[in-house]
Amino acid sequence: MSVWTISPAATPESVSMPAQGAALWWLGQAGFLIRQGGLSIVIDAYLSDSLAEKYRGTKFPHQRMMAPPVAAEALRGIDWLLCTHAHTDHMDPGTIPALLAANPGARVLAPRACRDQALARGVPECRLVLMDAGETLDLGGVQVTATPAAHEDLRITPEGHLFLGYVLRGGGVTLWHSGDTIPFPGLIETLAPHRVDLALLPVNGRDAERAANGVPGNLTLDEAVALTDAIGARGMLGHHFGLFAFNTLDPDTGRARLAELRPAAEVALAGPGQVWHVAPTARRPLALLAICKGNICRSPLAEGLLRQHLAGRNVMIDSAALMDWNVGCSPDPRSVAVAAGQGIDISGQVARQIRESDFDDFDLILAMDAENIAGLAALAPAGARARILRLGDLLSPGISQDIQDPYEYGPEAFAEVFDQLDRAARIIAQNFIP
User: Fold this and answer.
1) In what order do the strands lie in the sheet with 136-138?
2) Per-residue confidence (pLDDT) for residue 61, from 0 to 100
3) Quick count: other Cβ atoms within 10 Å of Cβ 196?
4) pLDDT > 90? residue 188
5) DSSP conformation class of 140
6) Where is the Phosphotyrosine protein phosphatase I domain (predicted)?
7) Is the pLDDT of residue 282 over 80?
């Protein structure tokens, strides 16, 4: 089943609210009008020439290649304006006041770390809602979860992340607008539990010349396609091109490249004057498999913690070993003890070895370290459905880390591993909202 159907739509008024699913209309650059869950949401709208005025006469004059498809004041019935960060083509002082004046009931959602910029660009404080990565809000029919983004780098202030993405869940579908980002450790691990239907990803790439002139870059088209497949999304719309000559992707070149890549997901570049309809699809319950070398120390703890934090959710959880040394054995007594100290009973678990069928029976296989990752990659059959993730990469976005085997060490090492796995399991629970 295709992720989307496409129909012509010359104006936003012709984009109707779907009873189920979502409808999207590209505003140019990273901007979209989204109708979903009974709400009309605008994200990262740049509908002015404020950057051309700001950079007139400079090396990068920011002259438009594409006229705004609609005037800001012509967008009516808007419930929310979402800004992923404070760069002007995402939080535009030439768009915000006009859009809010035309929509007196609309509110603005922005990163907590960008509060001052939002206020300075015309958002009244009484209409401003702030959030940070890992937080979830109900917008009134659509749940939004903020995800970290790295606009060439992850920048975190005392108030939170400067760059965010937003997962939008409503109408039976899940959309993810990544914000401006490049790949970084933990991004795939953060997004995979969301079971994204459609990813909206920037594809204008990056290079040294742009970076040296203060223009941070984004995913390349190849990276965007790889990321889409890595998180298990059904589809991807590439955007953030066609506006400024110094910071774009040629769409003809991009479409030719997409035809060569042959990803598992359905992928395309956004285009003007079209509405993309995304319909819900039936999904089986999320299935998680924790893996370590012997299935007696780390993965039994991970299984127990996932069961605790995902209690009551429609999720299948198990654990297994790469090796066959401990098949039929109970968890290590030190793992049993550290779990029992926190009210979790893992004593009834029995070690087993991973099977070939696990690579299709489970959605996410959660490895503890690089050795596990390599072993799983070698065992995975061609075309396997499961995504193999490094669990430790959830702990500190931007830093790839192993959850070390405590077997040769004492109770303190088991307690440290328990704490790491507890944090990772909580993050997975935050990122899976059925």
Assistant:
1) 136-138, 143-148, 164-170, 173-177, 198-202, 235-239, 266-269
2) 87
3) 25
4) yes
5) S
6) 286-431
7) yes
Q: Is 348 helix (H, G, I), strand (E, B) or coil?
A: coil
| pLDDT the model gives residue 402 | 97
Catalytic residue among 35, 169, 298, 387: 298
Query: Please, what is the average pLDDT of the chain?
Result: 96
Q: What's residue 60's pLDDT?
A: 86
Half-sphere exposure of 57 toward its Cβ, with a 13 Å CA cutoff? 2
Other CB atoms within a 10 A radius of the CB of residue 375 amount to 18
Q: Does the annotation mark 405 as catalytic?
A: yes
How far, in Å, are 27, 43, 78, 115, 376 from residue 93 at the CA level? 16, 14, 17, 14, 49
Which residue, 183, 191, 181, is CA-closest to 151?
181
Tokens of 318: 């198990």
User: pLDDT tens across 30-86, in order?
Assistant: 999 999 999 999 999 999 999 988 888 888 888 999 999 999 999 999 999 999 999
What is d(CA 366, CA 357) in angstroms, rounded to the nearest whole number? 16
Which residue is it, tokens 């800001």? 72
Q: Domain segments of the chain: what residues?
A: 4-278, 286-431
Amino acid 434: pLDDT: 63
Is the separation of the CB atoms in 216 and 180 below 8 Å?
A: yes
Q: Give the residue carrying structure tokens 């490094």.
A: 390
Catalytic residue among 292, 318, 332, 387: 292
**Topology (CATH level 3) of domain 4-278:** Metallo-beta-lactamase; Chain A (3.60.15)
Q: How many C-beta atoms lie closer than 10 Å to residue 367's C-beta?
A: 27
Crossing angle for the helix pair 411-431 and 333-340, nearest 10 degrees? 60
Strand 266-269 relative to strand 235-239, pairing: parallel
Superfamily of domain 286-431: Response regulator (3.40.50.2300)
Phi and psi based region of residue 23 (left: phi greater than 0; alpha: psi -120 to 50; beta: remaining): beta
Note if 292 is an active site residue: yes
